[in-house]
Amino acid sequence: MSEQFNYLPYLSELEPPGGLTRWAARQGNLKQQYIIYRSGWRPAEQGNKKERCALAVCTACHGEMELASAEAKPECWRAQPRIGFYSPETDEPVYSGDEITCPMCGSIVKVRHTSEIGDLFALREWTAQVTRIPAEGKTDRLAIVEWVTERHIDRQGVSRYRTFLWDAYVVEERKLVRTAGYTNLMYGQQIEAPLRQNTKFRNDFGKYRLLWPWDPAELVGTTAENCKLDLYIKAGGRKLVDWLALWRKKPQAENLLVQGYGKMTVDLIDKTSGANIPYIPEINWKEKRPSRMLGMTAEEFRAYRGKLSGEEYLTFKWTKDRGIP
């Protein structure tokens, strides 16, 4: 009988950790601020006529501005907005795509014309969460859940946020199970889609961009209790799913982290590519003792502990296999 459970009912009702949206909003792409502008009119300084201007709003301070219109950008192409405005600080022309200082609040902002905002202008940030999933009659499953926080900005400079589940990787007794909440389109574009659980393992996780704070005690009593995920992260590892997949296939990999070869292990995992379990042929996985796994004598193992990078180990292995001192 297969060990695989149906995790969709649980994951469909799973809520992001409290405060995650606010926390993610201050990180990475989401903290970028903008001046959004469009063409408008304002009273001329002399007479009763009106003059063309740029009506702008800052997303950081929500200050509204009327800025002097700049001539069309000479090298702009058909799809680009032609109108610009003059910076109140430098009196130089500014166009969509430039970066300036907001004249009202002093924030560093990017400039965007309303024609480039539309209804689909959104910023995204991914956050990985280490958590556990209960399985009735079985050991709790450790899971890496990835949340997406979206920041939607409208033409009035108002930001709205939402967070939803992107994918999840569940560690079972013998394998990893992937549940995805998105689908791939042409040109690598990915959009939100109903959750689906795959029967075969495929790793599209990559390196985490943000990691929600977690306690290593979360591992206790789960299917990955001895995976040493905390040591892997402490050594600089960011491919959480790669490490868990490798550990589930080769449990003795944890000994390398415990014995001071974490940095080397992280580097070797980072050199692998593809959506399958990391393949590291330079390590002898038939052995369980770390020194024998690495092809070292006891003296070499002690001497190199905590010092080798992945590239240095590969050089050591290459020279030793060829009898070069």
What does this structure look like?
With 325 residues, this protein is of the alpha+beta class. 20% of the residues lie in helices and 30% in strands. The chain is built from 9 helices and 13 strands. The strands form 2 sheets. Strands 5-4-3-2-1-7-6 form a 7-stranded mixed sheet, with no helix packed on it. Helix 6 packs across helix 9. The protein is elongated, with a radius of gyration of 27 Å.
Secondary structure topology:
Blueprint: H1 8-12, H2 20-25, E1 33-43, E2 50-58, E3 64-70, E4 84-86, E5 93-94, E6 99-101, E7 108-113, E8 122-133, E9 141-153, E10 159-171, E11 176-184, E12 190-197, E13 210-211, H3 229-234, H4 240-249, H5 253-258, H6 262-271, H7 290-293, H8 298-304, H9 310-321
Parallel strand pairs: 1-7, 8-13
Antiparallel strand pairs: 1-2, 2-3, 3-4, 4-5, 6-7, 8-9, 9-10, 10-11, 11-12
Oligomer: single chain
Shape: elongated
Counted beta strands = 13
What's the N-to-C terminus distance?
Answer: 53 Å
From the alpha carbons, calculate the radius of gyration and give it in angstroms: 27 Å
Average pLDDT figure: 91
Q: In terms of per-residue confidence, which ranges show pLDDT below 50 for 5 or more consecutive residues? A: none
Strand order of the largest sheet: 5-4-3-2-1-7-6
Query: Helical residue percent?
Result: 10-25%
**Main β-sheet: number of strands, strand sense, barrel status?**
7 strands, mixed
Task: Work out the helix count.
Answer: 9
Q: Determine the structural class based on helices, strands and strand pairing.
A: alpha+beta
The amount of beta strand, in percent, is 25-35%
> Helix and strand string, N-terminal first?
HHEEEEEEEEEEEEEHHHHHHH
